[in-house]
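Q: Fold this one first, please.
A: Sequence and structure below.
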Amino acid sequence: MKDLQAIPLQEPTNLWITASIMICLGLICLCKILYEERFLRFLALPIEPRYFIIKKNEHKLSFLFNTLLFTFNCLVAGIVLNLIARDHYPELLTREFIFFIQVVFGFGVLMLVKYFAEKMLANLFLMENIIEDYLFFKFSHRHYLALAIFPLCIIDVYTHLLGGYAFLIISVAFLIINLLFILKYYRKKGLLIFNNLFYFILYLCALEIAPYFILYKVVTILN
């Protein structure tokens, strides 16, 4: 009888990404259990804007709901970028988990820094209510897009049906949709933006474009 020999895996294990997916599912379940009515309104966001008709006090009381969705968003961002890197940067396969942690941590820190910077600017220019509405609108759509792309992540992880450029194209499409949502809000506030055009352009460059470029440079340098 021949000696049994261990055969090394030819493909990287999905153990860590499976754990990440389970955490994401757990976060969604917590949102559904703890904030059922609001979560259902959130799911109907594209067809029914009632989700935005929330009293300010209710928004503050649902801090945990927003935190759960924010954590979910960060994890999905890490999974998406990891799947794209897997297909187009195979050299990252030897350190996928480290890359995933870098993206999740970097994305989370970036979003928090942007959020508090925007809040400080709002206080500085006495525009708290306007910026508060804008941030709520922006983060709500961003969380919804993360929820929408999450099933595609699961399909790609375990079937590779969206490999190659397909998943990249889908991800870009979701980013474009997110941009259209933001442009819709800008158009709604067109007069206000026009009256403060200089500050608006400064805001776009400093807080909407530059941070993502910095995150990209940091992640690429570390890898």
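Q: Good. Now the second chain.
A: Here it is, same layout.
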Amino acid sequence: MHTKIDILLEEIARIMLVTGDFNKNKGLFVGQSGASMFLYNYYNYSENEFYASFADELVMSISQSMDEDKIFYSDGVTGIAWAMSYLAGADFIDLSVGTAIFDNVDKALLKSYPRFFQTVESAGICTYVYERLKDYNKESEGELIELLFVERLVAHIEEIALLEGNKKPFTRRELTEMLEDSPKATLDKSAEKYFSAAVVLRKARQHSIYSEMVDRLSIVIADKLTGIINGMHQFLEDNEALNPVHIRQLQNQLLICFNAWLQLRVPEEEMTQTFISCFVKMENYLIMNTGGRTEKLNVPVEVTCITLMDTINIALQHPMLKDAINAKVDRLVDYLEKEADLVDQFVLNPVTLNIGVTGLAGLGLMLLDRVLPEKTNWEKALMYN
């Protein structure tokens, strides 16, 4: 399997060398910041300095042309700055915390802290802010910025409380309708909402920010996630015939919801068993309904699924989940080797290739975690842990 993975990794790196300059997006999710994370880690594995040199060029280009008015995490300066911090922490680049790139992003963010909540963007921006709070020195300006950021984070937590504090969990009927009708619409939106809230609350707890409110809200959000996961379990018990596409959608939502739940709670046997039972039913259903045939895979979705499973299994250390991860990786590698054109899997539109952590870089980093002696921890970019 290493040989197959090595071939794929080399192809991913080659594609990035050819296309990296053409993707003008500097961001983390689809652009050059995400690509640089893969290239440096691949250099660490291959020991070919050419990849590090190209990554150096990307980082130089990124740092010289950041649009500080674009504060978003997925393709804006907070995500870019997070990537630079990751690279510096891994000793790939020489970048002290006090450099202008971070100071400028901090000031831009304080100038226009976003007024949206419970989205991946808002959770990402909070993740960047929490990382910065760890690193501030106590000089007068740094202390002022630190206080201002805490003030923004407290307001963010209060907004989550306003949005969720008085809402009841879904009823069984509501959940059944969601699961039957459109898991990619209603449930997708709910999963993102609760995942994003969980990220913000977990980070707030780590920094002892607004502790009483955070503890109360963590219970509220965890209870809602428990209801969704239990609802999925019951739905699978009650429905024998489901479309495999529907099951794949549900499986990713299950993983997102359980990952969010783990960010708020210590693993409990009852909830763990419900999750494992639900996951096994979905896996068995997919195996039965494909009958061993080669199936067309949505590669980005498969990478997301495997990465979520990896992260969850760090907490659970469950042998069934480990076996399922290995099987999914083997299946994906075989599919990419025999059936799929890598470029086709990650084309966003006729002129843009996704080379970031939700695209080619994510695939490459997930595969590197199979062959490197130490994990790259790249999934932190997606806020999974």
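Q: Anything worth noting on the second one?
A: The first strand starts at residue 347 and ends at 349.
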